[in-house]
Amino acid sequence: MSSRTRSTVAHAVVGVAIAVAAAMLVPAKAEIDIDVRGGVNTDAEGPFVGAGILTNIGGSHSWYFNPNAEYTAGDTTDVLSLNADVHYDFATASKWSPWLGAGPAFVTYDPEFGEDDDNDVGLNLLAGVGAKHGKVRPFVQGKALVADNSEFLIAGGIRW
User: Fold this and answer.
1) The whole model's pTM is what?
2) Less crowded by CB within 10 Å, the N or C end of the chain?
3) d(CA 24, CA 3)
């Protein structure tokens, strides 16, 4: 196993462990869901893993705050993003709810594994769809980061 693969696996394990630990520490009445996600960062040309939390805003069942972190092990550079996304869920009669959203992002690009890091701030624009009910709810999402180094990510994940 290469050092790059070991690093990616280690970051994925840490992200999932943090999400699970946070889920156990959150009071049941807080109505906070945990998510784990993975997918492809088309601009970094590599897979990514991530985790986040989801909570409704102000008791609304349409507006949600979804802060999250994502790590991409790209072919030419590794990318770590910290995101404060907000999205609006559209009411539907189906078991699935589509959403549109946006939020600020802080991104670190690491082309040399610890040397010459480059930081960027941008705006996420996202669209997705997810299951509305159940203990474990799958979702898919597309996200465009508008910044000096713009990116596009396609994600799939689960919330609980």
Assistant:
1) 0.78
2) N
3) 32
Domain 3-159, classified CATH 2.40.160.20, yes or no: yes
The tokens describing 34, both together, are 């945990």
What are the boundaries of each domain within the chain? Answer: 3-159
CB neighbours of residue 113 within 10 Å: 12
The predicted-structure confidence for 43-64, as pLDDT tens digits, reads as follows 888 899 999 999 998 777 899 9
Place of tokens 């994940």: 157
Question: What residue has token string 């980061």?
Answer: 145
Q: Give φ, ψ of 6 to 5 degrees.
A: -60, -40
